[in-house]
Amino acid sequence: NKFLKQRFDNRKKIKSFIDAKLEEENKRRQRFGETIFFVEPNIKEGAGGLRDYHTFLWVAKAANFEQRFENIYRLSQISQIQEQDLLHSIGFLWRVRHSLHVLDNSRSDRLGREEQIEIANTMGYKDTDSSIAAEEFMSDYYKNSFVVNYHSRRGIEAVYNKITPKRSFFNFISKKDISENFYKIRRKIYLKDQNILLQPLEILKLIMLAKKKNWELDLCVKDRMSESIQASEMQNMFDTAGVGDLWKEIFNDPILLYQTLFELMLNGWLEKYFPEMEKIMHRIQLDSYHNYTIEYHSINAVHEIANLESLSEMKSFPFASKILGQVKRKNVLMLAVFFHDVGKARGGKHEEVGAEIGRSIATRLGYDSNDIEDASFLIKNHALLPTLAFRRDIKDLNLIERFAQNVKTIELLDMLYLLAFADVRSVARHIWSDWKGTLLDELYKNTVSYLKGSGRDSEQQRLFVKKLDKIHKLIEGVMTRDELSAFLSSMPERYLFTTSPSAIASHITMADILTEKKVVMHTRHNPSKGFTELSVVAKDAPGLFSKIAGVLSINNINIIDAQIYTMPNGTALDLLWVTDSKDRLVYDTNIWEKVYNDFEKAVNDILDVHKTLMLKVKPRFLSKTKERTNFVQVKIDNDVSVTETVIDVFTNDRLGLLYGISRAFFDLGCTIERAKITTNSKQVLDVFYIRDPIEGKILSKDRLKCIEDAIKQAASASTI
């Protein structure tokens, strides 16, 4: 105590120490994450971790250095019940941390997805018909982490208020009444009567006012809000007249909505206003796709829309910002954005369950019948646009026709696009890419063209005439106009619909010089869309695409989209969108020179692609890296395409995976017409449009089962 007395003998020194600890905490947040709702939290250093509690203790002890530790809680305005809750949660975190150290045989504090499964079993959690043990365990983890974070923040605020009293002449003259129960000093709101019971409408109005004015709520105000919200009179938060109308006003302002929802979540009030959220609070999904709990992801989605109204985001995403400017009913859009995942953790298809819950919420808030139906439609179909954009051929006119008929209006399409944009971007930063943004934009534009036009046939004819004129000017002397017309008519409609006039002209020129070579390649970089376009023209041969995939894999180039065509003279034309291993454009000319040489050798059977890849991916027996659980899921869709069978392959990523799967299709006698490759963290979703060279679309159940088994075997193999 003598040392502490010398160290903290005046208020200025105490405040300086506290400021330093808070700055240290901010730096820790930047390194380990600013939210407790991260799917792989750091138990010690992350938000809601043990270090939050330690920081509170250090701050409280500095301000009360003469007191024993057991007295610090009360001096920090933490009640005995709150102290018990806090210590119980600290105990839970310690048990998890000890289990993690035993499991990893190290001092690791990162609670990864695989460790969550193991520790859930260790701590006695069991799978049930309605829940997964690891998800239940993590739900408890987040609840306890929230308690630690909340009471630590609250305790630090109480200590800080104690050493910075509001009594001063300047504070006295700046004091101003803002309502019957509240006044403000500078930029902070205080209560006049500490014992008053606040009403739902009053609480919501106060939060709304504070967010609009950028004012803070005093600790006593927040405490009284919590006590009022927990009171029996608050069980139905919409009994008070005007609450629904106020929420509609908030939902019409994306920025205000985000700030309000975040404040409610931060203080544990969110599910009190919207009890439908209780089922998804503190819930994660055990996949490599989602990085946050469901409720935090939902609020992040609102934040993504709110950001589109800021100048910086308008520059980053001008197309999405423009569409948001077209939306007249933002309250409908934002209700769908916030509640798009409310149907999860209830069993069944969460989109359908959520649509009914959204309908109920919109009705309770007083939305009119059209708004209720449209909000329900958006929630039910929120995954449709990204699913089609990322997993299907967005140039397929049959697909666009069905999608447009489902959406019906451009207004609903605008809102569905923005919902998809917000949903994908708020899942995790690494999930979004310029390429995915391009796919969403193109599907939106193609659908708008269909809705504005008179349908599919007129769109085809308009494009054909428009492109014919442009291409003929570019290849004058290579083909006559009639020859060009015959060439375009012989190619699949998606080629005409997908490919720019300059690219088509380039392909015709490449085919013209193919007589001198066995293969011709051309690259074009597209920074705005986030990929390099690779065109390959070669003499068609069985297994050609698997050789291309293998050569690119050997050179650490990823295929993210592929379209395979055969020209009228039997020449193969493969169009690929590619990136390097870090999802960047491939500018290095030395790499492309090696790719060309390798592919030329592969076509001439000089390079054994299979053997070369085997050497590249040979197992490292001394590696300490844990083997990941081998997971393969194959789905067959014979409805989405008129002419091809669509195969979805979801599995762990590895070098040579695409080569192995494409080679399996070749061995099965199937041709790949198109491929879309989506990589999320360590897992991939590969989509293949395949057909039989003679029979076309594959309908035989026995053959489809044979294909499914072969693809599962190829995808699950540890080597190529």
Write the layout of secondary structure elements.
Blueprint: H1 2-7, H2 11-32, H3 50-63, H4 69-75, H5 80-104, H6 113-122, H7 133-163, H8 169-174, E1 176-177, E2 182-185, E3 188-191, H9 200-213, E4 216-217, H10 219-230, H11 243-251, H12 254-266, H13 270-273, H14 294-307, H15 311-316, H16 318-326, H17 330-338, H18 350-365, H19 369-380, H20 384-391, H21 397-407, H22 410-427, H23 434-452, H24 456-474, H25 481-490, H26 493-498, H27 501-512, E5 519-526, E6 531-539, H28 544-554, E7 557-566, E8 571-580, H29 589-603, H30 609-616, E9 632-637, E10 645-652, H31 657-667, E11 671-680, E12 683-691, H32 701-716
Parallel strand pairs: 3-4
Antiparallel strand pairs: 1-2, 2-3, 5-6, 6-8, 7-8, 7-11, 9-10, 10-12, 11-12
Helix pairs in contact: 2-3, 3-7, 5-6, 5-7, 6-7, 9-11, 9-12, 11-17, 12-14, 14-22, 16-22, 17-19, 17-22, 18-19, 20-23, 21-23, 22-23, 24-25, 24-27, 28-29, 28-30, 28-31, 31-32
Strand order of the largest sheet: 5-6-8-7-11-12-10-9
Query: Radius of gyration over alpha carbons?
Result: 30 Å
SS-based structural class?
Answer: alpha+beta
- End-to-end Cα distance, whole Å, is 67 Å
Beta content: 5-15%
Mean of all residue-level pLDDT scores: 87
Number of helices: 32
Into which percent range does the helicity of residues fall?
55-70%
Which consecutive residue ranges, at least 5 long each, have pLDDT under 50? 620-628
Q: Categorize the overall geometry.
A: elongated
Number of strands: 12
Q: What can be said about the biggest beta sheet?
A: 8 strands, antiparallel
Number of domains: 4
